[in-house]
Write a structure and sequence with these properties.
With about 260 residues, the protein is of the alpha/beta class. The chain has a domain of about 180 residues: Carbonic anhydrase (Beta-carbonic Anhydrase, Chain A, 3-Layer(aba) Sandwich). Helix content is about 55%, strand content about 10%. Helix 2 crosses helix 9 and helix 11 crosses helix 13.
Length: about 260
């Protein structure tokens, strides 16, 4: 499944999936229209010639403006950037367009190493995320890893629903297992948004646990105080909230002795 199918394809199948996610999320149609409205540049001639793709062309013209302004303010920036990267934080977040990590953290290019997927699911058999972690921790030697979920997450909404979503059902399985495991406490929450946020938090905690069982992470935690954090981004306020991920020393030792591989 391509990103285009998820977001922009007009094929009936993709449309059905998108509708299902939107319905599961129970969005206000006005809010959705506002969120989807492209930031077009009325002076951009290619946009006016390529009807329906104004947002894309606006992105390209904005890039030129951004690069020019950034160079003016930081003449050496791109020269240094091209020489290499030394980010100190690995960010693992949701693909949701409303949670762009560098923007919400006020960070410049080069500050964050990033992996994003639908609903920030961290699966121990996902070679994509394992490769990112291996490189970020083993080679770049980041000092902190952040797993960040967010409120009103479409993937969480889908997990709390029972619609068939095809390959997404496979992807969301770890979170559906969390739903099953925490069924009683989730069912006690009458407010749907509270329930969604609760599952988002459980998903972040589970992601942090999975990361702490990866050998390269265990080694870096022991040898150079690598820390793994959990956060939730609140779409209503733009603020990050901490997710409890502390563990006592005995659990830390048991985990390390079980998952340290030599
Ligand atoms: Zn999400």
């Amino acid at each position: 499944m391509s990103a285009a199918e998820l977001d922009t394809s007009s094929s009936p199948r993709a449309h059905k999936k998108r509708k299902t996610l939107e319905m599961a999320e129970n969005k206000d149609p006005k809010e959705m229209a506002g969120a989807a409205a492209p930031q077009t540049n009325p002076t951009s001639s290619p946009a006016t010639l390529d009807k329906g793709h104004e947002a894309y062309h606006s992105c390209l013209s904005s890039n030129k403006e951004w690069a020019a302004e950034y160079t003016k303010a930081n003449p050496d920036f791109f020269g240094k950037s091209a020489q290499g990267q030394t980010p100190q934080v690995l960010w693992i977040g949701c693909s949701d367009s409303r949670v762009p990590e560098s923007t919400i953290l006020g960070q410049a290019p080069g500050a964050l190493f990033v992996h994003r997927n639908i609903a920030n699911v961290i699966s121990p058999t996902d070679t994509s995320i394992l490769s990112v972690v291996e490189f970020a921790v083993g080679a770049i030697k980041v000092k902190d890893i952040v797993v960040c979920g967010h409120t009103k997450c479409g993937g969480v909404n889908a997990t709390l629903g029972n619609s068939k979503l095809g390959i997404l059902d496979v992807w969301l399985q770890p979170m559906r297992i969390l739903r099953e495991k925490h069924h009683e406490e989730l069912e006690k929450l009458e407010d749907p948004e509270e329930k969604r946020t609760a599952l988002s938090r459980l998903n972040v905690q589970a992601g942090v646990d999975t990361l702490r069982r990866i050998p390269v992470v265990i080694e870096a935690m022991k040898e150079r105080d690598l820390q793994v954090h959990g956060l939730i981004y609140n779409l209503h306020t733009g603020l990050l909230d901490d997710v409890e991920t502390k563990e006592d020393e005995s659990r830390k030792e048991t985990r390390a002795s079980t998952f340290t591989l030599q």
